[in-house]
Write a structure and sequence with these properties.
With 537 residues, this protein is mostly helical. 76% of the residues lie in helices and 0% in strands. It has 28 helices and no strands.
Length: 537
């Protein structure tokens, strides 16, 4: 039956095409008055026939492809089977992150007038949003409005979330307006996304109003109310409105909302943001009384505040509590502890945590190794710093620019300038190029040792490599020239800083003033002080 349909369709097209071109062909082949080029030229007729044939073949090809999608084939394949296969393939490709291929397949279907369903389009929109290609995701949604299928609430929610993640809250709010104008009713997820977006933008009053409207809807379950209120509470804490956040918590309690771990994490994190550990501990205790087990995020929040405040012993105690509660510290937990201990110059304890990670088959990330290396370097133990670097390489973690800068800083601090310069060459051999910090360390070391010429050479090398010297670079050169008694050269550098428009702190002024005092040039001191007052009003 399908074969007959196809045959009749083909015959129909051929007949139509022939009838369509029959009269035109006769007219074209007839000689035209006043035309010398076409008079009796046989090629003109063949060119016209060739064009007609090509056009007919293209039409036949299009019709055949359309029929293959619209009717049952001899091999038993159906439109439904082909369609299902195609949409499943598109969805799988989106999940695998192969969006280019997924969009190509989608486009092929659309060219054949076969439109994938809204769910498949949602997969594409979600994939594009996750990859950060919001422009293409927005285009796809607009294409859905034009060609179909009509976007669903989930489609708009996905794109709105994408804009919020990329910090484009205004676009998310515009999309909400488009959604309602298109007759799509927002759901609870939409509202949660909007509350989050408004809080992110600091529009807490509007967010609060929206939450009030949502909570008036008695059809929504209490779990949904808890999620919405928790988002708003997080926004209040983030913008420093602690009283409003506490008020929200009390409202949630009065409504009888069953607080979960996430809600407690938000309020504990909020108090830690305001550096208030006492109420944070209070809610941790309340959490345990309710039978809720704190997770790794809860403990990491407490560890972070304790280490920032220098309470590293208390932080180590919290780490022990974690282990007793059966909560396994993660990379973030150890990163917080190790950095906190290194900041408090307890490098030995920090190194113990590093080995504890290794014993647990947790390979520390580069930042953790660099923190330990920098810690030993600052304490003057360069040999231990080098040992940690070698151990890092043994575990398959390659040193980066921060590793080398930490080691160079250790050498410079120990007065070992030659070794620092050798390490710079080693960097280049490893394919790592020095950055502004590297050059500033080496320029400062050269100037402090009285090797001003070497410092200037490094400055010139910076320029050749495309780095713009900053205020630190020029301050070190001013110091170097003053130490050598070359005040005029130091003054030239100071003028250059002003010409470049670099932000000048108090250090260059202090260096020059001290040098003028030594020279007895008090007028120069006064003049420089007046410049300082004018530029730092």
């Amino acid at each position: 039956m399908a074969h007959m349909c196809r045959t009749y369709a083909h015959q129909d097209i051929v007949a139509t095409v022939c009838n369509q071109y029959k009269l035109k062909t006769k007219n074209w082949l007839a000689p035209k008055n006043g035309s010398d080029d076409d008079k009796g030229h046989p090629n003109a007729a063949f060119n016209i026939l060739d064009a007609m044939l090509k056009d007919s073949l293209e039409r036949l090809k299009t019709m055949r492809e359309s029929i293959s999608w619209a009717h049952i084939g001899h091999n038993g394949g159906t439109l439904e089977a082909d369609y299902t296969k195609q949409v499943i393939m598109i969805r799988d490709l989106c999940l695998e992150g192969k969006l280019g291929v997924a969009l190509w397949l989608w486009n092929k279907m659309m060219q054949k007038y076969v439109t994938p369903d809204v769910l498949t389009h949602n997969y594409l929109v979600n994939g594009l949003c996750k990859s950060g290609d919001l422009e293409k995701a927005d285009w796809l949604v607009r294409d859905m409005l034009y060609r179909g299928p009509s976007p669903s609430c989930a489609t708009y929610n996905t794109l709105m979330k994408g804009y919020c993640v990329s910090n484009n809250v205004d676009k998310a709010l515009d999309l909400f307006s488009t959604m309602t104008n298109s007759g799509i009713m927002p759901n609870r997820v939409t509202c949660n996304i909007l509350v989050h977006a408004l809080c992110k933008k600091g529009l807490l009053e509007k967010a609060r109003k929206l939450v009030g409207e949502i909570l008036d809807d008695e059809s929504e379950p209490k779990t949904s109310n808890l999620i919405t209120s928790t988002i708003l509470m997080h926004g209040c804490f983030k913008h420093g409105d602690v009283l409003e956040a506490i008020s929200l918590w009390e409202e949630m309690s009065q409504r009888g909302d069953q607080m979960d771990v996430v809600a407690y994490n938000v309020i504990i994190h909020g108090f830690c943001l305001s550096h208030n550990i006492t109420p944070a501990y209070k809610y941790l205790s309340d959490m345990l009384k309710r039978g809720l087990i704190p997770d790794v995020f809860t403990y990491n929040t407490l560890l972070s505040l304790l280490c920032k405040e220098g309470k590293v012993e208390e932080a180590c105690y919290i780490h022990d509590v974690m282990l007793k509660m059966g909560v396994h510290p993660d990379q973030i937990s150890y990163k917080i502890l190790i950095r906190g201990l290194c900041m408090n110059c307890d490098i030995v304890k920090a190194n113990e945590f590093l080995h504890l990670m290794i014993e647990k088959s947790m390979v520390p990330e580069t930042l953790i190794w660099n923190t330990i290396i920098d810690g030993y370097g600052r304490c003057g133990n360069i040999q231990k710093a080098l040992y940690i670097r070698d151990q890092m390489v043994t575990f398959g973690i390659l040193p980066n620019i921060y590793t080398y800068n930490a080691l160079i800083h250790a050498y410079v601090k120990g007065g070992k300038i030659v070794q620092a310069r050798i390490l710079k060459k080693e960097m280049l051999l490893d394919g790592i190029f020095p950055d502004l910090v590297t050059y500033n360390l080496l320029v400062g070391a050269a100037c402090n040792c009285g090797h001003i010429h070497s410092g200037v050479q490094l400055h010139d090398e910076m320029l050749r490599r495309g780095y713009n010297p900053d205020i630190i670079t020029y301050t070190e050169l001013i110091k170097g020239y003053c130490m050598k008694g070359k005040v005029e050269e130091a003054e030239k550098i100071f003028v250059k800083i002003q010409e470049f428009g670099l932000p000048i702190d108090h250090v260059p002024y202090q260096v020059l003033m001290k040098n003028y005092f030594k020279m007895g040039a008090l007028d120069n001191v006064y003049d420089l002080y007046q410049i300082w007052l004018r530029t730092h009003k």
